[in-house]
Every structure is written in structure tokens, then in C-alpha cells.
Amino acid sequence: MHIHRYEKLWLIIGSLILAVFLGILAFQTFFLEMGPPSHAEMIDPQTVRESEIFADTELKEIGDNEYEIAIIAEMFAFQPGDLEIPAGATVHFTLASPDVTHGFKITDTNVNVMVVPGHISKVSHTFDEPGEYLILCNEYCGLGHEFMANTITVK
Amino acid sequence: MAHINETPILHKGTAVNEDAAAGITGRDIRLSAANLFIAFIALLIGGFAGLLQGLVRSGFFELPSWISYYALLTAHGVMFILVLSSFFSIGYLYAGTSRVLGGLANKTIAFGWAGFALMTTGTLIAAFLIVTGNANVLYTFYTPMQAHPWFYIGLALIVVGILLNCIGMFITYQSWRKRNPGKLTPLFAFFANAVFVLWVFASLFIAVFVIAMVIPWAFGWVATIDPMMGRTLFWAFGHTLVNIWMLTSISAWYVAMPKIIGGKVFSDSLARVAVVILVVANVPGGFHHQILDPGLSVNVKFLHVIQTFMIIFPSLMTAFAMLATMERTGRAKGVTSLLGWWKTLPWSDARFFALIVAMFAYIPAGLGGIINASNQINQVVHNSIWVTGHLHLTVGTTVILTFFGISYWLIPYLSGRKMTPTINRLAVAQTVIWASGMLLMSGAMHINGLLGSPRRTANTSYNGHSAAADWAMYEMLMAMGGVILVVGIILLVYIWAQLAFFAPKGKTDFPIGEDYSPSDASPLFMDRWSIWVALATVSVAIAYIIPLIDFASGHNPGSPPFLMP
Lengths: 155, 565
Fold this sequence. Notes:
- Chain B: Keywords: Electron transport, Membrane, Respiratory chain, Transmembrane, Transmembrane helix, Transport.
- Chain B: It comes from Planococcus maitriensis.
- The complex is a heterodimer of chains A (155) and B (565).
- Chain A is 19% helix and 35% strand.
- Chain A has helices spanning 5-30, 52-55; strands at residues 60-63, 66-74, 77-79, 83-85, 89-96, 102-106, 112-115, 121-127, 131-136, 149-154.
- The mean pLDDT of chain A is 93.
- The longest helix of chain B has 34 residues, at 227-260.
- Chain B has a two-stranded parallel sheet with strand order 1-2.
- With 565 residues, chain B is mainly alpha-helical.
- Chain B is built from 17 helices and two strands.
- Chain B has a domain at 29-225.
- Chains A and B meet through helix 1, strand 7 and strand 9 of A and helix 7, helix 8, helix 9, helix 10 and helix 12 of B.
């Protein structure tokens, strides 16, 4: 099998670029802890609404400008409704679905996570810029999917 | 056409049975033509569903109450992604294999028709339930959303039909090898066999999911289902499908394109290496659709990212081989300047023009794919309409334009007719129309996705939220692109009808390129598929054993069905 000199060069350069690229991704993932949301915890979808975590769903201050909230993603709403937080606040979201698969996306941020029934999803974000952010479901969840949205106001 | 080089140089690497190459038998033609016919109907239905979606989402048009946006979306996805691509690849690969191997085996014809019957029946059942609003679950049918139970029976019939076609292909391939000991299979047959090996891998995942898990649950025999297991098995199938389309497309780039431009295959052996890497490395790529899923650890996800990236390597090989083929062809015609060979390419030949536009689209399409698969960067684009834009560049432009290019020789080859200069000009115009429509639509989708607009969502202003207001202009561009594309579909159907029934009778060749030099012939062990299937199984095992054991032992309480609507 004969490989042309230029092709060797092209494949070696291409592979090196890929290796560097993967190296950067690995560095960000494992040293800067920028990996994707990957929480692993089970919950019975049929008991989400009564469960200890999700029955009491309101914004809780757990530290200096640090908040925690459990959100139920259901057909076709996020419970509780619209949220309000001060600028610079870090919010830890805990999510679960009592019905079908949903998506949790906050526009103008990189908050984006799947909410799959049977699993608890977690994602955190620090809201530095004031404004009214749109929270929407970005996974088709049924005929009312386009109505599934809330806002989070940063003051 | 005048510029086609008809020099009959043969050597071992791509030995062609010239008696058979004069034309394939009537029964092989009928089987291929039947498959292509269904593919073309799927293109029409899926295309119009797509147009309506564009008009609805941009607010130009409101649907009557008896059909929902999501029913259209389901029809568009199922028709294009499952029906068009499977029927077209079978029709095309069976015809080409018959051409290079000197006819299909008797058993292949039997399996082919049995598969065709099952797939057609399955398509009719699924299409009926989608149109009547009983299957608003989209082509991904994520559980625990539930369609009418018979929708899944329809899908299962399609998958089993595809598996029968795989058996058919393997029979002809292996019987040729038995009759020609010590000879390498022709490159086209090697590609075709690879595609059907991937179909087996893809189909087994989805067959286990639909037949063993979804159907018992949808009919109520089992109370609950594990949605994560379903997502994982679906994407093992779904992403393999992507490479089935790519492999089908690049078979035309590698084998037919050199012949069309009057050149030779750049390197038989490197082409086979690219094919083998695609087959071995492909299935775990499915996991990059689940980067934002819960229940998979950061470490396992990174392993999947590395495995997904392995598919980039054969694409680099393909990029080099295509340009090298074109340059060498120009050099052989006496071009000495650095880029002068570019001008000697047959730009006015629709068969070449459609293929090279498809190749150009593959550059941004591939780059977008790397972005999507890049672990944390996926958070920026996941489930936004950027992904839809990506799909329309990859499948909607690269693959489909290649299929169109193939049809310009495949249909007259099967119908015993010849393309006229007028039809050729229309086909060039069709390529331009298609590419511009896709550029506009897919470009607008990419931008809108970066602005945060979600995919698969009916027209909504999100209560007049300002973020959603920014998307409106791009949604209008998407709709305009959709209108241009439908003009392209209408033109294409006209061209196909001409080529199938009205063009002047004559002999059209199925272009099969020959090797550049005998020293590039592959070693014989490349034909031993047991090696590649074993390696592919190992790569699947590395990716899937940990997650599947995790899901199975995670005591997922399971989900009851939620009927849509």
C-alpha cells in the first residue's frame, strides 16, 4: 500500500491539529472543570411532585449571593414560575421531570441540560449581567411544547 | 457526453465483468427501480412537509386544526431520514453492485423483494398514523412519549426489511468472492458491502429497542420503560445512519467521480482504508447526542468524544483523495500550472457539478459536526436550531445533492435512456437552486441557533419576550430558503420523470472508475469482513458496556407511557 508524500504530510498535520484540539477540550474539562452537566442520581418520575427535593420548590439562599432551587419540568411548564435574583448571584438548579423528557435552556447563557424522567439533572450558573432571561424547554415534549417557558430576572 | 474517457484499461484491483457491464438484467433493474420509486415519493411528501413547517414557524401560514406542526415535523423526519435514505441507498447500491459483480444472485433478488415489501408496508402504516395525528412523536420517538402502538410496528417492519436487504447484499458479495478466489472485490462492491454492514449494526440497536422494549410497552404488556436506555439505543442507530448516508455518498465520490471527469481512482487501497475506519469507528459517535444527558459521567462522555473524533480521520483522507483525483486528471490532460487543472473539470456536466457542490458543502458541514461533538462546547448549540442547520448541510446538502447527482446517471441507466443537453442544463440549474436554498435556510438556522432559538418548536413569541423577537428575521430567511428548495424539488421531479419515461432511448453508463496504478491495489485481507466486524464490535463494546450496565443496574423506576396527543 503506497501513501503519497503529500498525503502523509496532510494526514499527520490533520491528526496533530485534532490531538491539540482534544487536548484543549480535555484541559478545560478536567482542570478547569468546564465539563458538561453530568449529575447521576435516580428519582421515580411518578413521585417527583411529592418528593422531599421537589415538593418544596422555592428559591433558597444558601450562601453569600448563592442560591439553590429545585425545578419540576413538566408538560408544559417549569414549576415554580418566574424567578428573580440579584446581579452576580450564583444559582444551583436541580431538575427532574414527572412525565416526558424535557430540555432546560436559559437564553444568553450556556445553561443547557436534558431533563430525562428517572434522573435528576443539576446545573449551575452565575448571572453577572442584569436583565430578563428566557428559560425555555428545548426538547420536544408534546403538542404544547412551544408554551413551555419562564423568565429569570436579574436585578 | 464527449468528455468522458472510455479507455478500457483493466487490472486486478477493480476488475469489472465487461459482459455484465454492458447492462444489468431486467430483474435487477426492476428491484432497483422499485426502491428508487418509493424514495422519490418520500422526497415529495417530506419536502412539502418541510416547506409547510418553514411557513408555519415564520408565521406566514397557519395550519388547519386537523393537523399539527409536530405531525408535519414527524412526517418530514421519517420520510427523509428513514424512508428516502434507506430506499435510495438500496436502489443505488444494488444497481451498482449488479453492474460491477455481473448481476445479483437469485437469493439476493428474493431477499430484496421480501425486504422491499416489508419496508413499503411499514412505511405506509407509519405514514398513515403520522398524517392522522396518531404519532406526533418526531422521528426520534423518545420514550416515554408514546405514539399509536402500530406506528412502532411500522418502524419495526422497515428495520426488518432493511436487514433482509443486508442479507441479500452479503449473499451476492460472498458468492462473487467464492467464484473469484484470489481476486479483490471491485471497489464499488466493497463500498456497498460496508454500507450494509453498517445497516446491520444500526438496525440491531433499533430492532432491540423497538421490538423488545417499545412495542410491549406501547401495547400495555409492560408497565414502564427506561427513557435513558431508549435514548442510548436510538442514537447508536441514529448516528450510524449518518455514516450510512455518508458512506453511500462517498462511494460515488470515490468510484464514479473519477470516471465522470475522465480520470482514475486516486488510490484503491486508501479508499478501502477510509471505508474500514468509518465502519469500525462509527457507532460510538451516537453518544455525542447525549453530552448533556444526566446519568453519564464526565469521564465516560470524554471517552465518547474521543471515539467520535476518530471519524474525522477518514474524512481528511477523503478530502485529500478527491482533490488529488481532480488534479491528476488535469495533469494527465497536460495542465502544468499550479491550479490550472481546476478549470479543466467538467463543470457543465450535471453529474459532476452536483457532486462537487456536495463536496463543498461537506466542508462547513464537517466543521459544524466537530463543534457539536466538542464536549463542553455542545452546551452552546445543543437542541438549538443550529443543529437543524447542521443536519441540513450534512444530509440536506452533501448527501442529498450527491443522491441527485447519482440519479442523473442511475435513472437513465435503469430506464435505458440518455440524458439530453437540455435536461443536463436543467439539472445544473437544479443544483444551483438547491445549494442556494440550503445556504440561505441552513445559514439562517445556524445564526438563530447561536442566538438561542430552539429546534423542533412551533411558532411562538414566548409571551413577546425580547430574545424571541430577535429570531423573527432569521425565521423569515428560513422560510424563503424553504420556498426555493421546493422549487428545486419540483424541478427535480420533472427531471426524474424525463429521465425515467421520456428522454430518448440509448445506453447510459454507470460510471465506475479504474485504479490509477496497480501498485495501489489493496492486500487481499481487506476483503475479510470478519476482521472489520470484529473490530467494530470491540469499539462498540468500549463505548457501550459501561453506560448500558449503569442504566440496567441503576434501578431506574421506569416511566409509564404518555400518549401523543
